[in-house]
Amino acid sequence: MCGIVGFTGTRQAAPILLEGLSKLEYRGYDSAGIAVRDGDGRTEVVKAKGRLKALEEKTDCGLAMKGCCGIGHTRWATHGEPSEANAHPHISDDMDVVAVHNGIIENFREIKEKLSKKGYTFYSQTDTEAVVKLIDYYYKKYNSGPVDAISKAMVRVRGSYALAVMFKDHPGEIYAARKDSPMIIGVENGEAYLASDVPAILKHTRNVYYIGNLELAKLSPEGVEFYNIDGDIIEKEPTEIKWDAESAEKGGYAHFMIKEIHEQPKAVSDTLASAVKDGRIDLSAVGLSDEDIEGIGQIIIVACGSSYHVGISAQYVIEDLARIPVRVELASEFRYRDPILKKDDMVIFISQSGETADTLEALRDVKRRGIRTLAIVNVVGSSIAREADNVFYTLAGPEIAVATTKAYSTQLIVCYLLAVQFAKVRGEIDEERYVSLISELMSLPAKMQRLLDDKERIQWFASKFSNSKDIFFIGRGIDYAICMEGSLKLKEISYIHSEAYAAGELKHGTISLIEDGTLVVGVLTQNDLFEKIISNMVEVKSRGAYLMGLTTYGHYNIEDTVDFTVYTPQTDEHFTPSLAIIPLQLMAYYVSLAKGLDADKPRNLAKSVTVE
Ligand code: M6R
Questions:
Q1: Alpha-carbon separation of residue 380 from 212, 320, 477, 582 (angstroms)
Q2: What's the DSSP call for residue 560?
Q3: Is 2 a catalytic residue?
Q4: Claim: this prediction has a pTM higher than 0.85
Q5: Of these residues, 2, 69, 304, 415, which one is catalytic?
Q6: Pocket of ligand 1 from Cβ distances under 6 Å
Q7: Average pLDDT, whole number, for the chain?
């Protein structure tokens, strides 16, 4: 969703802001803007619809704007069409107050109405302009300074926000406030930075502060001060970010997505190494004791998108190995009903960003009910990581491409580790099986690498089908979970209509969609279900489908049925998603490439969905 950057120091702000915004492009946007203030409080605002390039052209790459303090924004439209007028920053009528905002102000109409009666004019259709003018109103009415004016506005508005605000009478200062939308602050050598996400400031600093919900901050070249909503100063310690700056760069690859696909063996290996010590799984860093594990009655997994697909795979693996009942829920559905939860349940929240609005709200709801929560999160210090009772971090590093690949793979690994450890602690598997499952897990990175080394075949195949109208993915059991992720990957970056079906469901309706030449991808990694899926594939073939089969080495009789086969290395059947997903990620990427699309920035999508 929207991206925010801010800078104050002794260097010119505009080029730093533009560079920061370019690192947030992955979040998705349709317009952008920056505001720069010079030492006398003179403000210049430049905005442009479309890509950042348009803003760079208008500002001569920032060189045309003078001033060492500024804020910038990439906007993903929620209220009002993508346009220059609706782009941020927004300003008060006299330009005393300038601000950018990420989130949604639910009661903006009511605020607009009130302020219109007081003489304010509105020039955009956005909810943000209402907050900017509300802050200006309180600032002038009470004359008690920026922190007071913003706090009063925070009490008045409903919704979510990360706000960065500059005041004419306070040159060199940026004020920040947040509720339920991400924002971080970095401080280094007389300069202060503000951003929606770490990659925007990683080049400048690794010392990052997290602003809590309903907190404020003042940034200046002297440093940063934090306040609670009553305006009292609060103390905070910085967190050191360990991600290396190169990991947030493309490093010679055409897109972040293909780079991140190639980073999967390392990401998985790092994540495994964080929990496997001397050949055994150690969950002490996560804070889960054997007693905790023995006491789990039921597991509920809550997530969105690809993280939800990880949950579906995990359901099969945890139920099968640990014999604990597992339910998987879409966060956006779960949070709006009154789910039946018991005291001994454990609710697992899976999220790369740790900021997905529906997952975060579902977590809060479960916490209010006093049920134990465990988060599987990639971004250190994100809201979900901070608010869950226990956190298991995936070590994927920064994931920039909108379509998740390495975070998905590391989330799967965490779920396998939990399943194997839960199974052992609860006596469902013996020592020999435990040791062999861990050794199988440890061998996954090398097997993933083998699939990556053989990507040219997939590239060739993908280019043949880049003009498809529809592509179907079919499988049963864990293979169905793989299909769900393969299908999402393809549709989100290639814009080809695609569906994943539990193969047994085809005859209940979907088979009528199969036409001559429709590509159907069958995933067959489970011995028990192999013959069943083959039968389903024969059924669609006899209706004209072109078949791709994705299976494990050893199943050579598939070649009699399918038109194109991809083999994955052998592994324990529970862990096949980690291998089978790689050809499907590559296929999605190469279809998108063949269509001339930008795989990193698919239309209408945002990396982190921080509004519901
Ligand atoms: O950050 P999260 O894991 O909570 O994000 C959830 C989904 O928005 C995300 O997985 C989305 O589906 C991906 N773009 C899919 O590639």
A1: 14, 31, 33, 26
A2: G
A3: yes
A4: no
A5: 2
A6: 304-307, 351-353, 356, 359, 402-404, 488, 492, 608-609
A7: 92
